[in-house]
Design a protein that fits this description.
- The complex is a heterodimer of chains A (187) and B (100).
- Chain A is built from 7 helices and no strands.
- Chain B has 100 residues and is mainly alpha-helical.
- Chain B is 69% helix and 0% strand.
- The longest helix of chain B has 26 residues.
- The chains are: A mainly alpha (187), B mainly alpha (100).
C-alpha cells in the first residue's frame, strides 16, 4: 500500500514531464518529427524488450517465493538485475553516440538548429535520463531484495517487501512503455 | 475473494509462470506492432495508435504483473482516478493546442 502511494508521486513527476512534452510537440510538430528520426529505433526496441522481460522475471520471482523455491526466486531477481544493467549499457552507448555527433544540451551543433529540435533533445535527455536514474535505483532495490531472499528475510510466508520492490520495477517499465513511442517512433 | 477476507492475506494470488509468460508474449507482440506501424506514414493517427498500444501494454502490466486485478475494488478505483486525472490534463492540453 505504501509503495502504491509512492508510485502515485512518481506518476505526478513523470506526468508533468509528459504534459511538457505534449505542449512542445504541438508547438513544434515538424521539428519533433525530424529530430525523432535521428534516434535509433533498433536500440530503443531492444531496450523495450529487455525491460518487458525484466518485468516478467521479477513477477515470476513472486510466484517462486510463494512456492517456497528460494533459490529460483533469487535467481529470477538476479536475472532482472542483469537485464536492468543491459538496459543501462545500451543507454550508455546510445547517449555516447549522440554526444559524439555533437548532440547534447547546449552543444554548438545543437544550438545551430531550430528551437523545436533543441527542445526535443532537451526533453530526450531529461526524460530518458530521469528514467535511467530510476533504473539505477531499481537495481539497488532489486539487489537488496536478492540478499533478503538469500538471508531468509523474504520468505514464502512474508514477501510483502519483494512485492513492493517488484511494483517499483514494474512502474519503471511502464514509464519506458510511454517514453519509447514518444521519442523513438513518432516520426 | 470478497467473502473470505482472511484468505486474502497471503495465499490468494499465486499467478502461474505460464500466465505471466503469456502476458509477456502479448507485450512483445504489441511492441512489434507499434514498431511496425511506425514505418507507415499514418500522419496524425500515428500518435493515437502509438498511445493506444502503450495504454494496452500498461493495462496488462498493471493488471497482471502488478496484480491490480486481484486488489480490492476501492483500491482499483483509487488507481483509476489517479490515471484518469493525468489523462484529463493531457486531453485538455491537446484541445487547447489543437484548436487555437
Amino acid at each position: 500500500m505504501g509503495m502504491w502511494l509512492f508510485l502515485f508521486t512518481e506518476l505526478i513527476l513523470f506526468g508533468g514531464l509528459f504534459i511538457v512534452y505534449a505542449v512542445y510537440r504541438f508547438s513544434y510538430p515538424t521539428e519533433f518529427q525530424l529530430a525523432a528520426k535521428e534516434l535509433d529505433t533498433f536500440v530503443g526496441t531492444v531496450n523495450t524488450i529487455i525491460l518487458l522481460t525484466s518485468s516478467l522475471t521479477v513477477a515470476m520471482s513472486l510466484t517462486a517465493i510463494q512456492q517456497r523455491r528460494k533459490g529460483f526466486a533469487a535467481a529470477l531477481v538476479g536475472t532482472t538485475i542483469v537485464l536492468a544493467l543491459a538496459f543501462l549499457v545500451n543507454k550508455y552507448f546510445e547517449w555516447g553516440h549522440k554526444i559524439e555527433l555533437g548532440i547534447y544540451p547546449r552543444s554548438p551543433e545543437l544550438l545551430t538548429r531550430p528551437s523545436g529540435e533543441i527542445l526535443y533533445f532537451g526533453l530526450y535527455y531529461t526524460m530518458t535520463g530521469l528514467h535511467a536514474l530510476h533504473v539505477v535505483v531499481g537495481i539497488a532495490v532489486l539487489a537488496v531484495m536478492m540478499v533478503w531472499i538469500l538471508r531468509g528475510k523474504i520468505t514464502g510466508d512474508s514477501f510483502v517487501r519483494l512485492e513492493s520492490g517488484a511494483l517499483y520495477w514494474h512502474l519503471v517499465d511502464i514509464i519506458w512503455i510511454f517514453l519509447f513511442p514518444l521519442f523513438y517512433l513518432l516520426h | 475473494m470478497g467473502h473470505e477476507p482472511h484468505e486474502q492475506q497471503h495465499t490468494g494470488h499465486v499467478v502461474s509462470y505460464g500466465h505471466y509468460a503469456l502476458i509477456w508474449f502479448g507485450l512483445l507482440a504489441l511492441t512489434g506492432t507499434t514498431v511496425a506501424l511506425a514505418g507507415f506514414s499514418l500522419g496524425r493517427w500515428i500518435i493515437i495508435t502509438a498511445l493506444t498500444i502503450a495504454s494496452i501494454k500498461t493495462a496488462l502490466v498493471l493488471n497482471i504483473f502488478m496484480h491490480l486485478r486481484s486488489e480490492e475494488r476501492m483500491f482499483r478505483v483509487f488507481v483509476a482516478v489517479a490515471v484518469l486525472t493525468l489523462v484529463i490534463f493531457l486531453v485538455l492540453t491537446f484541445f487547447d493546442y489543437a484548436f487555437h
